[in-house]
Amino acid sequence: MSKHIAIIQGNPDPSGKHYGNALADAYQQGAKEAGHEVQIINVAQLKFPLLQTKEDFEKGVPPDSIELSQETILWADHLLIIYPLWLGDMPALLKGFFEQVLRPRFVTGEDKQMTPWNSRLRGKTARVVVTMGMPAFFYRWFFREHSLKNLRRGILKFCGIGPIKENIIGAVEAKDGRAREKWLKKMNQLGHQCG
After folding, report:
1. DSSP state of 86
2. Stretch 134-143: mean pLDDT, rounded?
3. How far is residue 32's CA from residue 51's CA, in Å, rounded to a whole number?
């Protein structure tokens, strides 16, 4: 059964020349080969300001690029979110994107308090892929994957999205061609499965 997939590319560099871009491309290729429909949100290419007040977060009108992203997210059955770990967290641009997109009025469809139970995003699934320079086990066990936990629990689950699966790809600069190719094949397979 074909699904709608939204790929959220969270690398703030608009050049598109990073390993995370290749991972997203492999996932997209696998998804399309399996008959799924894919739309891509490249956060680095969007124009939007950072939110600075509670009033703007709750009542402000989002910029056009954010409204288009919201439409894509509503359309999707499954989200693939890819980002590089920067200073132990997601890049600021990606966090600013989530703050803009996941406004209470968008998540609930009206002016009421946001909870996982009244979310229009309930029933959507997600996979989060985080790339980093440090070894993945070190991020998981020493740093307790705090950035990933925040995204999974404090943002996605809070908005009703689940189940959420993840991949942590560590030591990306040190990986040789075979190791990189193995991950690209895995992402292609995950795209096939819409998982």
Report:
1. B
2. 76
3. 35
